[in-house]
Design goal:
The complex is a heterodimer of chains A (397) and B (520). Chain A has 397 residues and is an alpha/beta fold. In chain A, 35% of the residues lie in helices and 26% in strands. Classes of the chains: A alpha/beta (397), B alpha/beta (520).
Chain lengths: 397, 520
C-alpha cells in the first residue's frame, strides 16, 4: 500500500535542499562530514520515500523503509533503467522546468528521463561547480574552455551539455565556446581556436565526450595536426564510447592526448556522469607504481559502492571487497529530487589509494554489464514483436 | 579444468564434443588434413573448462557420410526393431543410474557450461532417460506406425488388404540445440528406431552429453553405435553445412526462429525435415480447480514445477498462469501459494548460475515490477531465485524464463480467445489445464486449444517431461520419417464384410489365386 504524498514532506524539501547545498559548498570536513553525509542521506531517503511513489513501492517491495534503514548503504537503489519507465520526481509535475534524457543508444525511443525543478537545477549546478573547482581546477587557474559538444540551446535534453555550459559560465575565460553543431564537431573552427591559444599562450580546457575526443584525435592524425597546449591546459572527457566510436583503452587515450596535444597524463581527466545523477565523479590522480595512477573518487556529497547482485544480504546487495568486480551503486545527495541511490549498469571495482596523505576509497570503471540475453527455445518478447506479429495477426482475424 | 566438484586429475583430458565410431575415426585420422582438432574454452568467473571440437575437411565429411550409409545397410537394416529397442533400453538404464561414471562426470561439466545447477542437470537426465525406456519406444512406434514390425519386413495389414512394409530414411541429419541439457539423444533414438543412421551436429552450448551417450551405445553394442556420428561445424561454415544438408536424407533441426528460417531457405528443396523451433506454453486454471476442497497446495506445487524445470528456458515451459476469477480462491491467493512453492523449488532444484550482468538484469527487472502500480509482486526474493507476480495481460507476452511466474487473472475462456487464439499456430505448443474434476471444462478447453494449434495438453506439473509418445510439436516424428510400401493382395471391395486376415493369409500362400478370384 502506497501512502499518499504528504504536504509537510514537500515543505521539508526546501529546508533539506538548503542544508544539502550548504554541505556541498562547505567542502569535505573529515569525520564531521561523514556524519553529516549519513544524516542528510537518511533524511533525503525519508523525503523521497514519502514523495516518489514508484520509489516507495520499491522500498516496500524490498522491505527497506525509513523505519528500518539506518545507514546510507542500506538505502534502496533504483535501477538506472527505471528512469526509462517511471517518472521519478519528488516534486509536483508542474515544478518541472527541465527534463534531461539519456542518449538511449540501444532503444532511442525509450531513453531515461530525469526531471528538474528550478531548485533542483540550482542544486545540480552547485554540485557541478563544486566538483569542477576541486577536481578540474584545483589550481584555481582560469582557462579558455572549448567544448566538443553542441551548446545546450541545440541539445536541451543533454545533461552533459548543460553541465559543460555551467562550467564555461563559472570557470571559462572570455572566448570559451561550444564547437559542435547538429552535424558534429566543427574541426576547422576548433583547430583555429586551439592554434590561436597555443600561439597566444592561453591555457585551454578541452571538454567533451570520450568518443568526441576519439573523433578529434582521428581528425588530427588525418590532417597531421599537432599541438603543444600552453601550461595550465587540461582535457576532460566524459563517459565512455557507447558504440559511437571505436573503444579506446585509457592508457592509449592518455598517450594519444600527450602526443597530439602535449598534455601530461595528470592533465587528462575522465569524468563519470549519468543522466540519472546530478553529480559527477572525476578521476583523481594518485601516486602509483608506474608514476601516476588514477581512480574515480566521488565528491564528499556522494558515495559509490561496488556491489554484486548475486551476493545479497538482509540490506540488499553487499559491497564486494577491494579489487573485486561488481556494479557501481551511487548515493548522490544532489539528487534530492530524484532518488539519491542509483544502481548503475557500470561494472567496476573499488580501489584504495593515498590521497593527500589519507587512505581514500575510490573506484575504477571497467565497462558496462552486457546483459545476458535470454536463451532457449521459448520466445522472447522481441521475437513476438517482429513484423507480422501477434498484433498484426489479430488485426486480420 | 577447474569446475567445482571435479577432480582435476580425473579430467586432465578435455572432454570431446564430437564422436565417431573407432573404425571411422581411424579412417578419418588417416586422411591428410581430414580432421583438425581445436579447443573451445568456457569461462565462468575465474574458472574455465575446455572442450575439444574438431573441424572436418569436405573429404572427411564425405567419408563419414559414406561410412554411415554403409553401416546402415550392414547393421541397422538387418537388425530387428525389438533388438534396437533393447539396446536403447539398456542405454537408458545405464544413464538412469546416478553412479554411472559417464553420467557422474557429465553432470558437473554440463552444469558448468550451461549454467544450470548440477541438481537441475541431474534431474533433467533422470526425467529424459525415464521417458527413453524400451516400452515407451515400442509404444511410440506402435502409436505412429500401427505395428513396429512393419519396419522389419512385410507384415499382413488387414486395413490395406495386403502386406505392408515401412522404411526409414537411410541417413538422418540432426542439428541440435543446447537449451535442454542431455536431451539430444532423443533424435538418435528416433533415427535408430526407424533404422536410419544418424549424423548429428552437436551444439556448442551443450557439447558434453551427446558424445558420452554415443560412447554408452558403443559400450553396449559397437555395431549399432557404428551407425552414429557426432560432428560439429562452426556457425558460418556454410560450405560444410551445405555439404551436410546435401548428403542427408532427412533433417531434424532444433533452434531459434532465425536458425530454423535460415535452414528452411538453404536446405535442398527435396530434403524433408522436422522443425523444432521456438514454442510457447501456458497454464490455465479454471475456477473449478479453485473450488472449496481442492488441494491448492498441491496445485501450486505442480504449477511451479513447470516454471522451475530448466529454469523456464525450454519450449515446454509455461510463460504465464491464466487463472479464472470468481472461484472460491482468488488468483492472487493462488499466486501466494505459488510463491511459497517457488521458494521450495529454489532450494530443491536451485536455479542456474548467473553472471554479473545477468544477475543485474534480473534484479533490475524484479525491482521494476515492484515499482509498477499495475503489477503486484507476490514473491521476489533479493537473490532473484524466482519472481511471482499478479498482473493483467493486454496481449500474450513471453516471460523470458528464469522462473518468472505471472499469474494473470482472467474472466474465462473468452480471454483465451483474446490472448492465445491470435498467437501464430506454429509457436503454440504445451498447455497445462487445471480444471478440477470438471470433465466438461477439460473437454471445452482442449477442443479450443487444439483448434488454435496447441500440440500438447497436460495437467500442471508435467509440462517439462513429455512422453516419448507425444506427437512432438504436433508431428508424428517417427511416422513422418518412414516411407510405406503396400503389397496389395486383395482388391478393396473384397475386403468388406470378410475376414481380412484370413484372406491375406490365403493370398500370401497363393497370391495369384486370390487376385484372380477378385477379378472374377
Amino acid at each position: 500500500m502506497i501512502a499518499s504524498v504528504s504536504e509537510p514532506a514537500r515543505d521539508a524539501h526546501d529546508a533539506l535542499h538548503a542544508r544539502i547545498a550548504e554541505f556541498i559548498a562547505r567542502g569535505d570536513d573529515g569525520d564531521d562530514g561523514k556524519r553529516a553525509f549519513e544524516a542528510l542521506a537518511l533524511e533525503a531517503f525519508a523525503f523521497q520515500f514519502a514523495t516518489i511513489r514508484p520509489y516507495q513501492a520499491l522500498c516496500h517491495g524490498l522491505g527497506r523503509t525509513p523505519d528500518s534503514v539506518t545507514s546510507w548503504r542500506q538505502i534502496p537503489a533504483v535501477p538506472a533503467i527505471a528512469f526509462k519507465q517511471y517518472s521519478l520526481f519528488a516534486s509536483a509535475p508542474e515544478a518541472i522546468i527541465r527534463t534531461f534524457r539519456s542518449s538511449g543508444t540501444t532503444e532511442p525511443s525509450r531513453s531515461s528521463r530525469a526531471h528538474f525543478s528550478r531548485a533542483g537545477l540550482a542544486l545540480m549546478d552547485a554540485a557541478i561547480a563544486a566538483g569542477a573547482r576541486s577536481r578540474l581546477f584545483p589550481d584555481g587557474r582560469s582557462t579558455r574552455i572549448l567544448v566538443l559538444a553542441p551548446p545546450p540551446e541545440q541539445v536541451p535534453h543533454m545533461i552533459m551539455a548543460h553541465g559543460m555550459a555551467h562550467m564555461v559560465r563559472e570557470f571559462g575565460l572570455p572566448g570559451s565556446r561550444f564547437l559542435a553543431g547538429p552535424r558534429g564537431i566543427d574541426f576547422a573552427a576548433l583547430w583555429a581556436e586551439l592554434d590561436a591559444c597555443q600561439w597566444a599562450g592561453t591555457p585551454v580546457s578541452l571538454l567533451g565526450s570520450s568518443f568526441g575526443f576519439v573523433h578529434l584525435f582521428d581528425w588530427m592524425e588525418r590532417e597531421s595536426c599537432r599541438l603543444e597546449l600552453p601550461a595550465g591546459s587540461r582535457l576532460l572527457d566524459a563517459g565512455g564510447y557507447k558504440g559511437k566510436s571505436r573503444e579506446i583503452g585509457r592508457d592509449e587515450f592518455v598517450a594519444w592526448a600527450a602526443r597530439l596535444c602535449g598534455l601530461r597524463p595528470a592533465r587528462v581527466i575522465n569524468l563519470l556522469g549519468m543522466t540519472e545523477l546530478a553529480s559527477q565523479v572525476y578521476d583523481r590522480m594518485t601516486p602509483g607504481a608506474a608514476g601516476v595512477a588514477r581512480m574515480k573518487l566521488p565528491p564528499h556529497w556522494m558515495r559509490t559502492s561496488v556491489v554484486d547482485p548475486r551476493r545479497v544480504g538482509q540490506h540488499g546487495p553487499e559491497a564486494v571487497g577491494d579489487g573485486e568486480v561488481g556494479l557501481l551503486r551511487h548515493v548522490d545527495l544532489a539528487n534530492l529530487e530524484r532518488p539519491i541511490a542509483i544502481q548503475s549498469e557500470d561494472v567496476g571495482r573499488s580501489v584504495s589509494a593515498s590521497v593527500d596523505g589519507e587512505l581514500r576509497r575510490g573506484f575504477e570503471i571497467l565497462g558496462r554489464a552486457q546483459g545476458a540475453e535470454p536463451r532457449g527455445c521459448s520466445l522472447s518478447a522481441d521475437d513476438l514483436a517482429r513484423p507480422g506479429d501477434v498484433a498484426a495477426q489479430s488485426a486480420c482475424a | 579444468m577447474i569446475a567445482p566438484q571435479i577432480d582435476a586429475a580425473a579430467v586432465a583430458e578435455a572432454p570431446a564434443a564430437c564422436w565417431l565410431p573407432p573404425e571411422l575415426r581411424a579412417a578419418i585420422d588417416a586422411l591428410p588434413g581430414g580432421v583438425t582438432p581445436y579447443r573451445k574454452r568456457y569461462d565462468h568467473d575465474d574458472q574455465h573448462l575446455e572442450v575439444v571440437f574438431e573441424r572436418l575437411s569436405p573429404d572427411a565429411l564425405a567419408h563419414v557420410i559414406g561410412f554411415l550409409r554403409r553401416r546402415r545397410r550392414e547393421v541397422l537394416a538387418r537388425r530387428s526393431v525389438r533388438d534396437i529397442i533393447d539396446v536403447l533400453e539398456r542405454a537408458a538404464q545405464r544413464w538412469l543410474d546416478p553412479a554411472y561414471p559417464p553420467r557422474a562426470a557429465a553432470v558437473p561439466e554440463i552444469a558448468f557450461i550451461t549454467g544450470f545447477s548440477p541438481a537441475m542437470v541431474d534431474h533433467a537426465i533422470d526425467e529424459e532417460q525415464a521417458s527413453s525406456r524400451g516400452p515407451h519406444l515400442a509404444l511410440a512406434l506402435a502409436s505412429e506406425l500401427g505395428d513396429p514390425e512393419f519396419l522389419d519386413g512385410f507384415r499382413p495389414n488387414p486395413r490395406t488388404g495386403g502386406l505392408t512394409r515401412a522404411h526409414g530414411p537411410a541417413l538422418v541429419g540432426a542439428i541440435f540445440s543446447s537449451n535442454i541439457p542431455a536431451l539430444p539423444h532423443l533424435e538418435i533414438m528416433r533415427s535408430f528406431l526407424v533404422k536410419a543412421a544418424c549424423l548429428g551436429r552437436v551444439s556448442a552450448g551443450e557439447p558434453i552429453f551427446l558424445g558420452r551417450y554415443a560412447e554408452t551405445l558403443h559400450e553396449i553394442d559397437p555395431e549399432l553405435a557404428s551407425c552414429l556420428a557426432i560432428i560439429y561445424w562452426e556457425r558460418g561454415d556454410d560450405a560444410l553445412e551445405a555439404q551436410f544438408l546435401r548428403s542427408i536424407d532427412y533433417l531434424v533441426a532444433y533452434g531459434g526462429d532465425a536458425q530454423i528460417q535460415r535452414l528452411m531457405t538453404i536446405r535442398p528443396p527435396a530434403l524433408d525435415a522436422t522443425w523444432h523451433g521456438h514454442r510457447l506454453g501456458f497454464t490455465y486454471v479454471t475456477r473449478e480447480a479453485l473450488a472449496a476442497g481442492q488441494d491448492l497446495r498441491r496445485l501450486a506445487r505442480a504449477i511451479t514445477y513447470d516454471f522451475a524445470i530448466f529454469d523456464g528456458f525450454a519450449c515446454l515451459c509455461p510463460q504465464a498462469v491464466l487463472v479464472e476469477d470468481g472461484g472460491a480462491t482468488r488468483p492472487a491467493e493462488l499466486a501466494r501459494l505459488c510463491a511459497e512453492e517457488m521458494a521450495r523449488w529454489a532450494r530443491e532444484l536451485p536455479p542456474r548460475r548467473l553472471d554479473l550482468a545477468g544477475a543485474a538484469r534480473k534484479q533490475a527487472f524484479t525491482q521494476l515490477c515492484m515499482m509498477s502500480d499495475a503489477i503486484e509482486v507476490v514473491g521476489g526474493p533479493p537473490d532473484g531465485s524466482y519472481l511471482v507476480t499478479v498482473e493483467a495481460m493486454q496481449r500474450f507476452e513471453p516471460s523470458g524464463g528464469d522462473r518468472y511466474l505471472r499469474v494473470v487473472p482472467v474472466a474465462g475462456p473468452a480471454e483465451l480467445d483474446r490472448l492465445i487464439a491470435p498467437l501464430p499456430r506454429h509457436h503454440l505448443q504445451c498447455a497445462a489445464i487445471a480444471a478440477g474434476g470438471a470433465a466438461a471444462r477439460h473437454h471445452e478447453l482442449r477442443e479450443l486449444l487444439a483448434s488454435w494449434g496447441v500440440t500438447r495438453v497436460v495437467p500442471p506439473g508435467i509440462m517439462g517431461r513429455p512422453s516419448m509418445m507425444w506427437h512432438h510439436d504436433g508431428v508424428a516424428c517417427l511416422g513422418r520419417m518412414v516411407t510405406w510400401c503396400d503389397h496389395e493382395l486383395i482388391v478393396p471391395e473384397l475386403l468388406l464384410g470378410r475376414d481380412a486376415e484370413a484372406l491375406i493369409g490365403e493370398a500370401e500362400r497363393d497370391p495369384s489365386a486370390t487376385l484372380g478370384a477378385a477379378l472374377r
